Amino acid sequence: MLSTASEFRLNQRTDALNFDDCLAYAADAVSSLTRLLVSFVTAAALLAGTGAERPSALGVQATRPQRLVAIGDLHADIANARRAFRLAGATNEQDAWIGGSLTVVQMGDLIGRGSDDRAVLDFVLDLQERAKAGGGTLHVILGNHEVFAARPDHRWVDPGAFAAFATIPGLDLRNARVTGLPAMERARFAALMPGGYYSKRLAAFPAVLKIGGTVFAHGGVLPLWSRYGIDRINTEVHEWLAGRTAEPPPTLGLDDGSADDGVMWSRHFASNTGEAGCAALAESLSMLRAQRMVVAHTVQPHITPRCDERVWAVDVGISRYYGGPLEVLEIVDDRQVRVLDAK
Question: What residues pair up with 139 in beta bridges, in sequence order?
């Protein structure tokens, strides 16, 4: 962008710019272009020179799968996580991938509230590799509880979840942010802090994902974030979880209603939307060139469509913490949408 001085000269131009003004404007323009080039090269270097994998295609899957299944929040319940993937047709009783070319989108909140944090993380990360080997795809969206873990904010962590992280080798337990926590909480944060053992893997997950005509986000993508851009959101979140930047604007938020418009935090499309909510949804979908949005984060009694089925809320509280029904959402050929249940 041009400097304020350059913008002023442009806005105040007369019919005859003097020679000095022209030279000053040219110098500002060259300086601005140089800064832009340096920023671009620096960003490219950061993304290339890291052990943390970048989000695949910045949250866009190019191919439209014949069959896709979305699974809501798992909340550290390994037994029901396994049941959900079996219901989706992704795995069998031995957790082997049997889905073939199936694409699964898990909607975030792998952790928090339940006691199986590490077990669910390991299960999903391992299954992602097995899916790829078997011809399928498993995407995981980042949820607000992954954000809590990286800050850290342990208010919603089951006390029984901490101990499992203590056996991970090589954790940076001397980090000042780690040593300031109660002793039993340190290993979990060391593993999930930006740049930590698990966060390097989580950094590869998108905050917003688009597949065909469907956009997936844990909370939802309001128009302000649609304008911000999927690519920019995912890049900034990736950089934070990889341990290179401070927490970025897309992840900022709380669960107390004081900051609830972020892509991991919004409940605007998962609650009773009304005319204004549906109008905001339509605006976002138009900017994102999508037909529908799938969201989680807000527990529903059953998977619920709103706004003439242009948004689907899929968090039904399948973990034992909530005790909700086991349901997942199936999309066939990017057109046919239906709910699968365990009945």
Answer: 105
What angle is formed at CA 316 by the lines to CA 314 and CA 317, rounded to 5 degrees? 135
Pairing relation of β-strands 311-313 and 304-306? Answer: antiparallel
DSSP 264-297: TT--TTTS--HHHHHHHHHHHHHHHT-SEEEE-S
Mean pLDDT of the chain: 86
Give which of 93, 106, 92 is closest to 134, Cα–Cα: 92
> What is the distance of C-alpha 175 from the center of its chain?
26
Distance of CA 273 to the CA centre of its chain: 22
Q: Residues 108-151: pLDDT tens digits?
A: 999 999 999 999 999 999 999 999 999 999 999 999 999 999 99
The answer to whether the beta carbons of residues 89 and 131 sit under 8 Å apart is no
Cβ atoms of 149 and 113 within 8 Å: the answer is no
- Are residues 299 and 317 in contact, defined by beta-carbon separation less than 8 angstroms? yes
- Would you list the DSSP string of 71-101? E---TT-HHHHHHHHHHTTSB-TT--B--TT
Q: Are 129 and 94 in contact (CB under 8 A)?
A: no
Residue carrying structure tokens 């339509």: 282
- Residue 106: how many CB atoms within 10 A of its CB? 30
DSSP bridge pairs for 331:
68, 337
Measured CA distances, 197 to 56, 122, 194, 205 (Å) = 20, 12, 9, 15
Tokens linked to 289 = 């060139």
Q: 56-72 pLDDT, tens per residue?
A: 456 888 789 999 999 99
Q: Residue 301 is inside which H or E element, if any?
A: none
117 and 123 Cβ atoms separated by less than 8 Å: no
C-alpha distances (whole Å) from 303 to each of 83, 160, 288 are 17, 29, 23
| CA 209 distance to own-chain centroid | 8
